[in-house]
Design goal:
Layout (H helix, E strand, L loop, with lengths): L1 E4 L1 H6 L4 E7 L9 H15 L8 H12 L10 H12 L7 H13 L3 E5 L7 E5 L6 E2 L5 E2 L6 E4 L5 E4 L4 E2 L12 E7 L4 H19 L5 E5 L5 E3 L1
Parallel strand pairs: 1-4
Antiparallel strand pairs: 1-12, 2-10, 2-11, 3-10, 4-7, 5-6, 7-8, 8-9
Length: about 230
Amino acid sequence: MQFSHSDAMWQAFPELRAGALHAGGIHADADVEAAIASFSSIAEARLAKAQEGEFPEIQAWRRGFSRMGLKPTQYRCASEALLRRFRQEHTLPRLHPLIDLCNAISLAFAIPIAVFDAEKIAGDLEVRRAKGDETYLTFAGEIEHPEVNEVIFADGEDRAHARRWTNRQSGLSAVRETTRSVLIVAEALHASAGDDIARLVETAADALVRHWPVVAKTAILSPVSPRFEF
């Protein structure tokens, strides 16, 4: 399998830097609370100085959403939505140890992280503009069709595993108790995205190895190295 961004996406967003990680051997019994507390404390300290909307990582995504024709305060990237909820409630709901851990890492880095059940992806997964006939399964079980030219994560059967780029994932490939193999993707647009994505991927890989019996395969994606084989 392969994960990539289309050539058109790299041309439209040359500042994009992305990291990808694949691991098998995931289960729902890991205790990640100590790690969550550590990453959450980083976010707490940063939010004590400024709200998430002032973070350069979030500002860059807001500009990106505007360039996609979306209102950035109506459709937020996943990390902004998490930070906003965390600032208000000082905690996040627990869903699955891996999701909870990645959400905490996303808080600490202010960078959106997508986690997919790799066994639910058909063929290759590509971030590209939608044709409009792709199918998207909501968490409520409804089928939607992305807007034409909307940025989606599309697989080989034209199923959208995320809509509006980093805004909303699909219920189809959501991590559940039965999930064993995962693809994790982090993307950023801000000035230091390259360095920050590299640190995030290393941090996530280390955290996975500490909590699950996995060998994590990772890659840093850029216009000169745009594909991840896993």
